[in-house]
Specification:
This protein is mainly α and 558 residues long. It has one domain. It is built from 22 helices and four strands. A hairpin with a 5-residue loop joins strand 1 and strand 2. The mean pLDDT is 90.
Length: 558
Amino acid sequence: MLQPILYCAVFLLLVLLPAPLLGRYFYAVFEGHCRTLAPLERLTLSACGSDGREQDWKSYATSLMAFHLAGFVLLFVILMAQGMLPLNPQHLPGLSWQLAFNTAVSFVTNTNWQAYSGESSLSYFSQMIGLTTQNFVSAATGAAVAVVLFRGIARQQTTSLGNFWVDLVRFCLYVLLPMSLVMAMLLVWQGVPQSFSHYLPFTGLQGQQQVLPLGPAASQIAIKQLGSNGGGFFGINSAHPFENPTALSNWLEMVTLLSLAAGMIFTLGHYVKDHAHSRALAITMTLLLVMGLGVTVYQELAADPNLSALTDQLGNWEGKESRFGPVLSSIWAVATTAASNGSVNAMHDSLTPLGGLIALANMLLGEVIFGGVGAGIYGMLLFVLLTVFLCGLMVGRTPTYLGKRLGITEMKWVVATMLVMPVGVLVLGGITLLLPDAATIIGHSGPHGLTRLIYAYASGAGNNGSAFAGFAAGDNWQCIAIGVAMLLGRFGYILPVLVIAGRLARGPRQEASDSDFPVRGPLFVTLLVITILLMGGLSFLPVVALGPIAEQLISGAF
């Protein structure tokens, strides 16, 4: 068991060690301390029609929603009309309106759910101009919303929370673009294609005629990992040898999918001038991640009573790439579902029932175990506010968080966000179960079929984008329903977060006292973990018991 422990430890160190430095850099970027690209920044803002003046939360939300609506319409048109657009050497036709709607919503909301196979459905133009562009701006939006909440906590008696266009442009220019350029070059060095050539025909070892897909893959893969987007240029994602060709590329992609989200935790500390609080949040997220890693790696290495005795020594290799094996595949599966990044290097449908349960639980908890870039930390802060409020009620004192009083209005918006995942998963997923062709959609009549269904809607509402194989993601109703779940999962958090930020910014800062609930230290971490597990997990306990837990009991593995 030494190798699995070593791999997990190295992975955690590679993610966490640079996080404080990244957090400080992000703070400098958002506050305008980095001026290397100032002329380009001014030019871009001028093209956006922005004068850079700070906005209140309503103006910020209006700019954000207008930008994303325009991005959705543009991407929808590109996908529908790709047969008439350039950079389409395979002459692929446009998508159906249902699939175009689903895909446009998916990438605008940073979900990257893919109900298609990239190399056989999308042109180079659609992949590069349509999808990759949204990978940048959707990730930058998540970071910008998190910073608005940071400013709301840090500032007092003001309505100014920054400017959406400035925040968006700065994060793209100073963070995502340079890092993606370096990452793309590293991937090209490792063998990932970056080409506009036609697909290449070749003859296989057994004489069969096949086609070798190419395309500008490295550039999209770089930002899909860095921006916690997920998805893939090719149908089987990072299990494809062109998308993830070597052990080094696997480690690069696996580590970068959490790196920027981890850095955003420490950006909070710079805004609120409380680095101990940031460390406490990082410890909380790491603890939840380690728990998931431990269960998943153990389950994927354990013997399967339904398979041969070879599993006693080899573990569960079904659905795994032989280049990576059960351990690296398990680390990726846990990290990608913790990060709202839908990329995969193994088939999640082939995970053991409890291994699949961890991946499912990571999403059902609400994208708070590092989560997406920015989205993870503002999701976690909603649980922090709830924890502080509950602890304040228990001691009979008005709850305060970092000097800001938490009133009933703020908590109503926090509670509203707690309903997003149950509605997106249980309500929309339940409608699918009532359809006459539900069995065909989920592709399995037993507990595993229910797990597939819940996983699909958790992935949509959690803005993750991964899926169990066998689920009919391309079904017209699923394209629409999961599209609605993705919209709910994105903007059902963003809008309340902006409202909360605006209210906190208007309030005065209270002097700290000994009776305030401490937001650092072991007690805070313990209570926060309990709140996350209780509030984020209990809503789904019945359906989880009927899905992966029942499947584990049937398998006889307990």
